């Protein structure tokens, strides 16, 4: 298998989000994208407070208690 064959195999297996990040790294030399794709995996255990916050957020989403990106942007003045 050639190096290009291996690259094609790897690219075919990445998500669209990861593909966008790698494209920014390779084409645009984007330092933020590079930091994101090379960041270490967060392997710290979730704290009890974090678990409770996630559970609370999921309950709010299940009830439909959310706002759109557009509304949030407007509220933040973006």
Task: List the main descriptive attributes of the protein structure presented here.
78 residues; mainly alpha
Describe how the helices and strands are arranged.
Layout lengths: L2 H10 L3 H13 L2 H8 L9 H15 L6 H8 L2
Q: Your description of this structure?
A:
The chain has 78 residues and is mostly helical. It has one domain. It is 69% helix and 0% strand. The protein contains five helices and no strands. It has helices spanning 3-12, 16-28, 31-38, 48-62, 69-76. α2 (16-28) packs across α3 (31-38). 0% of the residues are buried.
Mean pLDDT, all residues: 93
Helix percent band: 55-70%
The tally of domains stands at 1
Proportion of residues in extended strands: under 5%
Cα-atom radius of gyration: 19 Å
Structure at a glance:
The protein has 78 residues and is an all-alpha fold.
